[in-house]
Design brief:
The complex is a heterodimer of chains A (221) and B (264). In chain A, 63% of the residues lie in helices and 0% in strands. Chain A has one domain. Chain A is built from twelve helices and no strands. By secondary structure, chain B is of the alpha/beta class. Chain B has a single domain, classed as 3-Layer(aba) Sandwich (Rossmann fold). In chain B, strands 3-2-4-1-5-6-7 form a seven-stranded parallel sheet, sandwiched between helices. In chain B, helix 2 links the parallel strand 2 and strand 3. The radius of gyration of chain B is 20 Å and the shape is globular. The chains are: A mainly alpha (221), B alpha/beta (264). The interface between A and B is large, with 48 and 41 residues. Bound molecules: guanosine-5'-triphosphate and magnesium ion. Magnesium ion binds next to helix 1 of chain B. Chain A: This is Urease accessory UreF family protein.
Chain lengths: 221, 264
């Protein structure tokens, strides 16, 4: 029995501000993405951003298990692979919510106190690694949770942005399972921050930059 | 926190029984005086942004203030307030609510806390941070994790019955405002009766009939905020939670008998 922690980590109701994020869907919709293309967007994200994010989270979880916790290398590697400033800012904003939760659960744990040393603010995958350490989840569970969260973020934002039958979104998530599993495996295979894959997609970045200049937004990014 | 100092955590791949202790710490730094966080909630268009503008106009001369807005679309309210010129524009922040304004002030206040903390860090020490909720329905109230005190705003244009309908904001907010009283003659609402309904639903909590055209009522509003701030500072103000769905009969009211409680 794996316990509740891995489920908690993947629960969209976790109060960490994730509902303010659409994982690129709102910018994509503004650029013309239609509802029938959401499954394709899910696959694209699983081959790009989700791999980098899950790998960074796993690296952070490993860093959290060291005697001297230092998130600097993974934070820098991830920031370097997130060239669009609005995406770094959104990631840092989401990371704050996760950091606040980790502080609430284990304020004195080195895995958590080390987050405060990260400048600028720790990106979301880094904080997820710390939270994973606090919850004592496995690398596999963490990688799957990050990948799953990517899917759920997009599909729940789709209910606001391209509304239709909510039951469709569950079918989309299940259909994406092979790509999700592949993304998690790829992430788990990354051993060092230097190996962190740079998977950002040019369109994702272009749309994110356009989104940041837009005034009427529902989502951070 | 007995066992959390030593960095003896096992490599996380080995599934260990959960070692973590439930933290009993509160996030808020204790002992450090921080700004009073005052939430302003109420249905769409009842005058929340106008109240924020009024409070800034009345109080910004004596208090260090900042504002956070929540809106369906990011920054409509923030833009209105910035253009009102009542506070330096950089002290007015808007947060994205992912089309969940209700969640943002109650179930998951992360984005709002971030905005409040950022403002305190950038312009602090502050005395008062006002947080406007996105216009929502009668059940949308602030969690005490975000707001130390809250006012709930309804208006005469919404009809004279609104106060009697109850709901957690109407029955339990620290202050209930019946706004736009200047419009009462045009919408055929009896303000005195509406206020009386509100009072009987609130078991002694204050009700204020407000119009921005009535300077006396504006002064009363500002005085109420000053008094809450004073109590916040001397530690006698205890944040209370109106709850998301307090049944009418749970209002802390003596005036109510079972005879006309109409819950369920
Ligand atoms: N007559 C009158 N109109 C008022 C008063 N206060 C606000 N209004 C008007 O009511 C309308 C809505 O006011 P807002 O302050 O934008 O209301 P709000 O609750 O912030 O609206 P949302 O943020 O959209 O929910 C505006 O046209 C205001 O000018 C008042 O005291 N008297
Ligand atoms: Mg408003």
């Amino acid at each position: 029995m794996p316990g509740l922690a891995p489920l908690l980590l993947g629960d969209g109701r976790l109060p960490v501000g994730a509902y303010t994020y659409s994982a690129g869907l709102e910018p994509a919709v503004a650029a013309g993405l239609t509802r029938d293309r959401i499954p394709a967007l899910l696959r694209a994200r699983l081959r790009t951003a989700a791999v980098t994010e899950a790998a960074a989270a796993v690296l952070a979880l490993r860093a959290a298990g060291q005697d001297l916790v230092d998130y600097g290398p993974v934070q820098r590697a991830l920031a370097a692979r997130t060239p669009a400033a609005p995406l770094r800012e959104a990631s840092a904003a989401l990371g704050r919510g996760v950091h606040r939760l980790a502080r609430r659960l284990a304020p004195d744990r080195p895995a958590v106190t080390a987050l405060s040393a990260v400048r600028p603010r720790p990106l979301r995958p880094v904080t997820l690694g710390a939270l994973g350490a606090v919850l004592n989840v496995s690398e596999e569970d963490l990688a799957h949770a990050v990948v799953y969260d990517e899917l759920q973020t997009i599909t729940s934002a789709a209910l606001k942005l391209l509304p239709g039958d909510p039951l469709d979104t569950v079918a989309w998530v299940l259909a994406a399972e092979p790509d999700a599993t592949a993304a998690a495996h790829e992430a788990l295979a990354v051993r060092t921050p230097a190996e962190l894959p740079a998977r950002t997609a040019p369109l994702t970045e272009e749309w994110a930059l356009q989104h940041a200049r837009r005034e009427r937004r529902l989502f951070l990014a | 926190m007995p066992d959390q100092q030593q960095p003896t955590q096992q490599p996380p791949t080995q599934q260990q029984p959960n070692q973590q202790q439930p933290g009993d710490h509160h996030d808020r730094p204790t002992g450090t005086p921080r700004a009073l966080r005052l939430g302003v909630a109420g249905p769409v268009g009842t005058g929340k942004s106008s109240i924020l503008a009024t409070l800034c106009r009345e109080l910004a001369g004596e208090l260090a203030m900042a504002v956070v807005t929540n809106d369906i679309y990011t920054d409509e309210d923030a833009r209105f307030l910035r253009s009102a010129g009542v506070l330096p524009t950089e002290r007015i922040r808007a947060v994205e609510t992912g089309a969940c304004p209700h969640t943002a002030i109650r179930d998951d206040v992360s984005a709002n806390l971030d905005a409040v903390e950022d403002l305190e860090e950038a312009y602090g020490p502050l005395d008062l941070v006002l947080v406007e909720s996105g216009g929502d329905n009668l059940t949308a109230t602030f969690s005490p994790a975000l707001a130390d005190a809250q006012l709930f705003c309804i208006d005469v244009a919404g009809g004279g019955d609104v106060a009697r309908k109850g709901g957690p904001g109407i029955t339990g907010a620290d202050l209930l405002i019946v706004n736009k009283t200047d419009l009462a003659p045009y919408v055929e609402v009896d303000v005195a009766a509406m206020v009386a309904d509100a009072r009987s639903a609130r078991g002694g909590l204050p009700v204020l009939a407000l119009s921005r055209k009535d300077p006396g009522s504006v002064a009363e509003l500002a005085d109420w905020v000053r008094s809450v701030l004073a109590r916040h500072r001397d530690g006698t103000h205890i944040p209370s939670d109106p709850g998301p769905m307090a049944p009418h009969s749970h209002a802390p009211s003596h005036a109510h008998s079972h005879a006309h409680s109409h819950d369920s």
